[in-house]
Amino acid sequence: MEKLQKALNKARQERGKTASGKNRAGPVPRAEVAEADPGLPLPEIWNRLPLFDPDPATLLSNRVITLNAQSEANPFDVLRTKIFLLMQQNGWSRMAITSPDKACGKSTTACNLAFGFSRQREVKSILLDLDLRRPGIANILGHKPQHDIKDLLLGEVSAQEQMVRLRSNVAISMAERPVSDPIQVLMSQQTATTIDTLQKDFEPDVMMFDLPPMLVTDDARAMLSHVDCALIVARAEQTKISQLDICEREVAEQTNVLGVVLNNCRLLNPADADAGYY
Fold it and tell me: What string of DSSP letters covers the chain?
């Protein structure tokens, strides 16, 4: 891990300001959104979403471990809190989750973050599965949506018809099937309008976009201009330093790099997990 960090720091220094993320104002700055309060009821539109009651065994088998507070969920809880505080500090509300290559665990990370946010009742969150070529969130959560996310994005169905609600404060939009030509959907003006409408109607504190890998197709690039920041998920013993550096640079050309998550790292000392601390 030290080698990985040193290599990234060296690459960032060489790039200098070239790869720095643009300090973009968020679509709806956090300061302009009504302060969340446990006693303040959610907008009525939240109550119209059908309640999603996930099967704990399915979640566990797919490595979603943040449904309830437990020591195993602590690393994701720490990540969730860091993300929320950084986004709140910068006035950001839209976050992309991507990776350099496939099989890095970005969709699993996105699901764990969403379930972690569901335990923070004062925080309203939305998760959208925009990896349209290889959607995975529905399979991970064991749910088959009645309508595809493509239909929602193109305005053919309403949010109430397509999305589901996890607990009281997390809305999830899943894909029913792969899309053969995602760019037509992702670069559509109607998609941009739908995302703006979701933000206006649901007033989320955090909108999470599960995007495709950066170095496989151009799908992710089509959406980065719609977000305030991006989280990059790399896989230990798989993701190459060169891949991570290219991915970070290309993300930084369009939005702010929120951070890099090293997934599937097996080098932790078991003693570090005592009492849930890492």
Answer: -HHHHHHHHHHHHHHTTTTPPP-PPPSS-GGGSPPP-TTSPPPHHHHTSPEE---HHHHHHTT---SS--GGGHHHHHHHHHHHHHHHHHT--EEEEE-SSSSSSHHHHHHHHHHHHHT-TT--EEEEE---SS--HHHHHT---SS-HHHHHTTSS-HHHH-EEETTTEEEE--SS--S-HHHHHT-HHHHHHHHHHHHHH--SEEEEEPPPTTT-SHHHHHHTT-SEEEEEEETTTS-HHHHHHHHHHHHTTSEEEEEEEES-----GGGGGGG--
